[in-house]
Protein backbone atom coordinates (compact mmCIF):
# COMPACT_ATOMS: atom_id res chain seq x y z
CA UNK A 1 0.00 0.00 0.00
CA UNK A 2 1.21 3.53 -0.79
CA UNK A 3 1.58 5.48 2.46
CA UNK A 4 2.80 8.96 3.33
CA UNK A 5 3.98 10.04 6.78
CA UNK A 6 3.45 13.76 7.42
CA UNK A 7 5.46 14.82 10.48
CA UNK A 8 5.26 18.00 12.50
CA UNK A 9 8.86 18.11 13.82
CA UNK A 10 8.08 20.66 16.55
CA UNK A 11 5.11 18.79 18.05
CA UNK A 12 5.63 18.15 21.75
CA UNK A 13 5.94 14.34 21.61
CA UNK A 14 7.79 13.99 18.29
CA UNK A 15 11.36 12.84 18.89
CA UNK A 16 14.07 11.66 16.52
CA UNK A 17 14.17 8.20 18.08
CA UNK A 18 10.42 7.69 17.94
CA UNK A 19 10.32 8.92 14.38
CA UNK A 20 12.96 6.37 13.27
CA UNK A 21 11.06 3.51 14.91
CA UNK A 22 7.80 4.57 13.26
CA UNK A 23 9.36 5.02 9.83
CA UNK A 24 10.94 1.56 9.93
CA UNK A 25 7.68 -0.06 11.01
CA UNK A 26 5.62 1.63 8.30
CA UNK A 27 8.16 0.96 5.55
CA UNK A 28 8.59 -2.73 6.35
CA UNK A 29 5.62 -3.85 4.25
CA UNK A 30 4.48 -0.68 2.51
CA UNK A 31 5.73 1.93 0.07
CA UNK A 32 6.41 4.95 2.29
CA UNK A 33 7.05 8.64 1.59
CA UNK A 34 8.03 11.01 4.41
CA UNK A 35 7.40 14.76 4.65
CA UNK A 36 7.97 17.40 7.33
CA UNK A 37 5.74 20.41 7.85
CA UNK A 38 7.42 23.79 8.15
CA UNK A 39 4.61 26.34 8.50
CA UNK A 40 0.92 26.72 9.16
CA UNK A 41 -1.37 25.01 6.61
CA UNK A 42 1.63 23.21 5.07
CA UNK A 43 0.14 19.82 5.97
CA UNK A 44 -3.08 20.69 4.12
CA UNK A 45 -1.20 21.46 0.93
CA UNK A 46 0.92 18.32 1.29
CA UNK A 47 -2.16 16.16 1.81
CA UNK A 48 -3.88 17.65 -1.23
CA UNK A 49 -0.83 17.02 -3.42
CA UNK A 50 -0.26 13.52 -2.09
CA UNK A 51 -3.83 12.34 -2.63
CA UNK A 52 -3.70 13.65 -6.18
CA UNK A 53 -0.47 11.69 -6.61
CA UNK A 54 -2.10 8.41 -5.67
CA UNK A 55 -1.14 8.00 -2.02
CA UNK A 56 -3.71 5.72 -0.39
CA UNK A 57 -3.21 6.61 3.29
CA UNK A 58 -1.68 9.70 4.89
CA UNK A 59 -0.46 9.23 8.44
CA UNK A 60 -0.38 12.46 10.46
CA UNK A 61 2.33 12.38 13.14
CA UNK A 62 1.86 15.46 15.32
CA UNK A 63 -0.76 17.10 17.44
CA UNK A 64 -4.41 17.72 16.76
CA UNK A 65 -3.54 20.74 14.61
CA UNK A 66 -1.56 18.53 12.24
CA UNK A 67 -4.44 16.03 12.05
CA UNK A 68 -6.86 18.86 11.28
CA UNK A 69 -4.67 20.20 8.49
CA UNK A 70 -4.26 16.79 6.85
CA UNK A 71 -8.01 16.19 7.11
CA UNK A 72 -8.72 19.49 5.37
CA UNK A 73 -6.56 18.35 2.47
CA UNK A 74 -8.43 15.05 2.16
CA UNK A 75 -12.11 16.01 2.47
CA UNK A 76 -14.25 14.11 -0.06
CA UNK A 77 -11.29 12.23 -1.56
CA UNK A 78 -10.43 8.53 -1.63
CA UNK A 79 -7.28 8.90 0.46
CA UNK A 80 -7.58 7.88 4.11
CA UNK A 81 -6.22 9.57 7.24
CA UNK A 82 -4.54 7.79 10.14
CA UNK A 83 -3.41 9.76 13.24
CA UNK A 84 -0.29 9.02 15.28
CA UNK A 85 -0.35 10.93 18.59
CA UNK A 86 2.56 13.36 18.69
CA UNK A 87 1.09 16.34 20.50
CA UNK A 88 0.30 17.24 24.09
CA UNK A 89 -3.31 15.97 24.20
CA UNK A 90 -4.07 14.08 20.94
CA UNK A 91 -7.83 14.26 21.34
CA UNK A 92 -8.84 12.85 17.96
CA UNK A 93 -6.50 9.86 17.94
CA UNK A 94 -7.50 8.86 21.47
CA UNK A 95 -11.20 9.54 20.89
CA UNK A 96 -11.35 7.01 18.04
CA UNK A 97 -9.49 4.38 20.02
CA UNK A 98 -5.73 4.77 19.49
CA UNK A 99 -3.36 4.61 22.48
CA UNK A 100 -1.53 7.80 23.45
CA UNK A 101 1.84 6.18 22.76
CA UNK A 102 3.06 6.89 19.22
CA UNK A 103 4.81 3.54 18.68
CA UNK A 104 1.87 1.52 20.02
CA UNK A 105 -0.51 3.55 17.84
CA UNK A 106 1.65 2.82 14.79
CA UNK A 107 1.40 -0.90 15.44
CA UNK A 108 -2.38 -0.62 15.69
CA UNK A 109 -2.52 1.37 12.44
CA UNK A 110 -0.58 -1.37 10.67
CA UNK A 111 -2.98 -4.00 12.03
CA UNK A 112 -5.94 -1.92 10.89
CA UNK A 113 -4.49 -1.51 7.40
CA UNK A 114 -3.87 -5.24 7.15
CA UNK A 115 -7.53 -5.88 8.03
CA UNK A 116 -8.88 -3.08 5.85
CA UNK A 117 -10.37 -1.25 8.82
CA UNK A 118 -11.14 2.07 7.09
CA UNK A 119 -14.46 3.86 7.59
CA UNK A 120 -16.20 6.74 5.87
CA UNK A 121 -16.43 9.30 8.66
CA UNK A 122 -18.42 12.44 9.27
CA UNK A 123 -16.73 15.78 9.90
CA UNK A 124 -17.98 19.17 10.91
CA UNK A 125 -17.35 22.47 9.17
CA UNK A 126 -16.87 25.89 10.76
CA UNK A 127 -17.30 28.78 8.32
CA UNK A 128 -16.15 26.39 5.60
CA UNK A 129 -13.18 24.79 7.40
CA UNK A 130 -13.42 21.14 8.39
CA UNK A 131 -12.98 20.02 11.98
CA UNK A 132 -12.39 16.47 13.16
CA UNK A 133 -13.34 16.60 16.84
CA UNK A 134 -14.70 19.95 18.02
CA UNK A 135 -15.11 23.70 17.75
CA UNK A 136 -15.01 25.76 20.92
CA UNK A 137 -16.63 29.20 21.13
CA UNK A 138 -16.37 32.00 23.68
CA UNK A 139 -14.60 31.23 26.96
CA UNK A 140 -13.28 27.90 25.65
CA UNK A 141 -11.61 29.58 22.69
CA UNK A 142 -10.20 32.36 24.87
CA UNK A 143 -8.48 29.75 27.03
CA UNK A 144 -7.06 27.96 23.99
CA UNK A 145 -5.77 31.26 22.62
CA UNK A 146 -3.91 31.96 25.87
CA UNK A 147 -2.42 28.46 25.86
CA UNK A 148 -1.21 28.76 22.26
CA UNK A 149 0.40 32.18 22.77
CA UNK A 150 3.10 30.47 24.84
CA UNK A 151 3.91 27.40 22.79
CA UNK A 152 7.03 26.40 24.79
CA UNK A 153 5.06 26.47 28.07
CA UNK A 154 2.38 24.30 26.50
CA UNK A 155 5.09 21.83 25.45
CA UNK A 156 6.75 21.56 28.86
CA UNK A 157 4.03 22.43 31.41
CA UNK A 158 1.19 20.57 29.69
CA UNK A 159 -2.06 20.35 31.66
CA UNK A 160 -0.81 22.71 34.37
CA UNK A 161 -0.35 25.48 31.80
CA UNK A 162 -3.83 24.86 30.44
CA UNK A 163 -5.33 25.08 33.94
CA UNK A 164 -3.45 28.31 34.69
CA UNK A 165 -4.57 29.80 31.38
CA UNK A 166 -8.18 28.89 32.19
CA UNK A 167 -8.00 30.67 35.53
CA UNK A 168 -6.42 33.75 33.95
CA UNK A 169 -9.10 33.84 31.26
CA UNK A 170 -11.90 33.33 33.80
CA UNK A 171 -10.91 36.44 35.80
CA UNK A 172 -10.49 38.61 32.69
CA UNK A 173 -13.28 41.25 32.46
CA UNK A 174 -12.96 41.27 28.68
CA UNK A 175 -13.55 37.53 28.41
CA UNK A 176 -16.33 37.48 30.99
CA UNK A 177 -18.12 40.08 28.85
CA UNK A 178 -18.39 37.70 25.86
CA UNK A 179 -21.99 37.04 24.79
CA UNK A 180 -23.44 35.30 21.71
CA UNK A 181 -26.66 33.59 20.62
CA UNK A 182 -27.00 30.01 19.37
CA UNK A 183 -29.69 28.65 17.04
CA UNK A 184 -29.84 25.16 15.54
CA UNK A 185 -31.51 24.72 12.16
CA UNK A 186 -34.37 22.78 13.79
CA UNK A 187 -35.29 25.78 15.97
CA UNK A 188 -33.51 24.96 19.23
CA UNK A 189 -32.25 28.30 20.58
CA UNK A 190 -30.13 29.73 23.38
CA UNK A 191 -30.47 33.51 23.42
CA UNK A 192 -27.32 34.19 25.41
CA UNK A 193 -24.23 32.08 25.97
CA UNK A 194 -20.66 32.60 27.14
CA UNK A 195 -19.26 29.23 26.12
CA UNK A 196 -20.31 26.61 23.57
CA UNK A 197 -18.73 23.51 22.07
CA UNK A 198 -19.82 21.68 18.92
CA UNK A 199 -18.53 18.11 18.93
CA UNK A 200 -17.90 15.67 16.10
CA UNK A 201 -16.57 13.01 18.50
CA UNK A 202 -16.47 12.55 22.27
CA UNK A 203 -14.71 13.30 24.60
CA UNK A 204 -14.17 17.04 24.43
CA UNK A 205 -10.62 16.63 25.76
CA UNK A 206 -8.58 14.67 28.30
CA UNK A 207 -7.20 15.60 31.69
CA UNK A 208 -4.30 13.19 31.66
CA UNK A 209 -6.06 9.86 31.10
CA UNK A 210 -9.41 11.17 32.32
CA UNK A 211 -11.86 12.12 29.54
CA UNK A 212 -14.16 15.13 29.68
CA UNK A 213 -17.39 13.56 28.43
CA UNK A 214 -19.61 16.40 27.25
CA UNK A 215 -21.67 14.41 24.73
CA UNK A 216 -21.05 10.62 24.78
CA UNK A 217 -23.63 10.02 22.05
CA UNK A 218 -21.61 11.69 19.28
CA UNK A 219 -19.20 9.75 17.05
CA UNK A 220 -17.88 9.62 13.49
CA UNK A 221 -21.20 8.23 12.21
CA UNK A 222 -23.58 10.77 13.82
CA UNK A 223 -24.45 14.43 13.31
CA UNK A 224 -22.87 17.01 15.60
CA UNK A 225 -23.74 17.55 19.25
CA UNK A 226 -23.74 21.04 20.78
CA UNK A 227 -23.34 21.93 24.44
CA UNK A 228 -23.45 25.47 25.79
CA UNK A 229 -23.60 27.40 29.06
CA UNK A 230 -25.47 30.64 29.52
CA UNK A 231 -22.83 31.84 31.99
CA UNK A 232 -19.26 30.99 32.99
CA UNK A 233 -20.04 31.92 36.57
CA UNK A 234 -19.23 29.44 39.33
CA UNK A 235 -22.84 28.24 39.53
CA UNK A 236 -22.72 26.98 35.93
CA UNK A 237 -19.08 26.31 35.03
CA UNK A 238 -18.08 24.24 38.07
CA UNK A 239 -21.07 21.84 37.93
CA UNK A 240 -20.51 21.43 34.18
CA UNK A 241 -16.85 20.50 34.72
CA UNK A 242 -17.74 17.99 37.46
CA UNK A 243 -20.51 16.42 35.40
CA UNK A 244 -18.25 16.06 32.36
CA UNK A 245 -15.78 14.08 34.47
CA UNK A 246 -18.32 11.90 36.29
CA UNK A 247 -21.40 11.50 34.11
CA UNK A 248 -21.78 8.80 31.47
CA UNK A 249 -24.47 10.82 29.70
CA UNK A 250 -22.61 14.13 29.40
CA UNK A 251 -24.04 17.51 30.27
CA UNK A 252 -27.80 17.59 30.88
CA UNK A 253 -30.39 19.98 29.53
CA UNK A 254 -31.33 22.20 32.45
CA UNK A 255 -31.48 25.86 33.45
CA UNK A 256 -28.50 27.71 32.01
CA UNK A 257 -27.07 24.60 30.34
CA UNK A 258 -28.01 23.02 27.01
CA UNK A 259 -27.10 19.72 25.38
CA UNK A 260 -28.37 19.26 21.83
CA UNK A 261 -27.69 15.97 20.00
CA UNK A 262 -28.41 15.38 16.32
CA UNK A 263 -27.41 18.84 15.08
CA UNK A 264 -27.05 19.14 11.31
CA UNK A 265 -26.48 22.88 11.27
CA UNK A 266 -26.18 25.66 13.83
CA UNK A 267 -25.47 29.41 13.69
CA UNK A 268 -23.86 31.51 16.41
CA UNK A 269 -23.92 35.29 16.25
CA UNK A 270 -23.35 38.48 18.25
CA UNK A 271 -23.06 42.23 17.76
CA UNK A 272 -19.52 41.98 19.13
CA UNK A 273 -16.85 39.67 17.69
CA UNK A 274 -16.34 36.50 19.74
CA UNK A 275 -13.39 34.06 19.72
CA UNK A 276 -13.52 30.50 18.44
CA UNK A 277 -11.08 27.63 18.02
CA UNK A 278 -11.08 24.65 15.67
CA UNK A 279 -9.55 21.40 16.92
CA UNK A 280 -7.45 23.30 19.44
CA UNK A 281 -6.23 26.02 17.05
CA UNK A 282 -7.45 29.60 17.72
CA UNK A 283 -8.93 31.63 14.86
CA UNK A 284 -9.68 35.32 14.43
CA UNK A 285 -12.85 36.46 16.26
CA UNK A 286 -16.06 36.68 14.22
CA UNK A 287 -19.58 38.05 14.64
CA UNK A 288 -21.18 35.05 12.89
CA UNK A 289 -20.11 31.41 12.94
CA UNK A 290 -21.83 28.76 10.84
CA UNK A 291 -21.32 25.11 11.82
CA UNK A 292 -22.50 22.16 9.71
CA UNK A 293 -22.41 18.37 9.78
CA UNK A 294 -20.69 16.79 6.75
CA UNK A 295 -21.62 13.12 6.31
CA UNK A 296 -19.12 10.68 4.76
CA UNK A 297 -16.56 13.45 4.37
CA UNK A 298 -13.32 11.62 5.20
CA UNK A 299 -11.93 8.09 5.07
CA UNK A 300 -10.32 7.26 8.44
CA UNK A 301 -8.20 4.29 9.48
CA UNK A 302 -9.83 3.12 12.71
CA UNK A 303 -8.51 0.62 15.25
CA UNK A 304 -9.64 -2.97 14.87
CA UNK A 305 -11.68 -4.46 17.68
Task: Report on this structure.
It is a single chain. The chain folds into 2 domains: 2-116, Rossmann fold, CATH 3.40.50; 129-290, Tumour Suppressor Smad4 (Sandwich), CATH 2.60.200.40. Helix content is 33%, strand content 36%. The chain is built from 10 helices and 16 strands. The chain has helices spanning 16-27, 42-52, 64-74, 91-95, 102-115, 139-149, 151-157, 159-170, 173-176, 234-246, and strands at 2-7, 31-36, 57-62, 80-85, 118-126, 129-131, 134-138, 180-184, 189-193, 195-199, 205-207, 210-212, 224-229, 257-263, 265-278, 281-301.
List keywords for this structure.
single chain; 305 residues; alpha+beta; Rossmann fold; Tumour Suppressor Smad4; 2 domains; two-stranded antiparallel ribbon; 16 strands; 33% helix; 36% strand
Task: Record the SSE blueprint.
Layout: E1 2-7, H1 16-27, E2 31-36, H2 42-52, E3 57-62, H3 64-74, E4 80-85, H4 91-95, H5 102-115, E5 118-126, E6 129-131, E7 134-138, H6 139-149, H7 151-157, H8 159-170, H9 173-176, E8 180-184, E9 189-193, E10 195-199, E11 205-207, E12 210-212, E13 224-229, H10 234-246, E14 257-263, E15 265-278, E16 281-301
Parallel strand pairs: 1-2, 1-3, 3-4, 4-16
Antiparallel strand pairs: 5-6, 5-16, 7-10, 7-15, 8-9, 8-15, 10-13, 11-12, 13-14, 15-16
Helix pairs in contact: 1-5, 2-3, 6-8
Amino acid sequence: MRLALVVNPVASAVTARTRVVIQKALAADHELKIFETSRRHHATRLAHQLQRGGVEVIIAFGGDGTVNEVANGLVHTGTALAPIPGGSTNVFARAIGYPNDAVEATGLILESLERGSIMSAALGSANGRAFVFHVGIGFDAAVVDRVERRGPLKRYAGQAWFAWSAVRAWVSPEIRAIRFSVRADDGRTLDRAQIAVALNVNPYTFLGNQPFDLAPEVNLATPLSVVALRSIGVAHLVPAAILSLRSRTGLPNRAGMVHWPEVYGVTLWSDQAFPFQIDGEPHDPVTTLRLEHMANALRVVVPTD
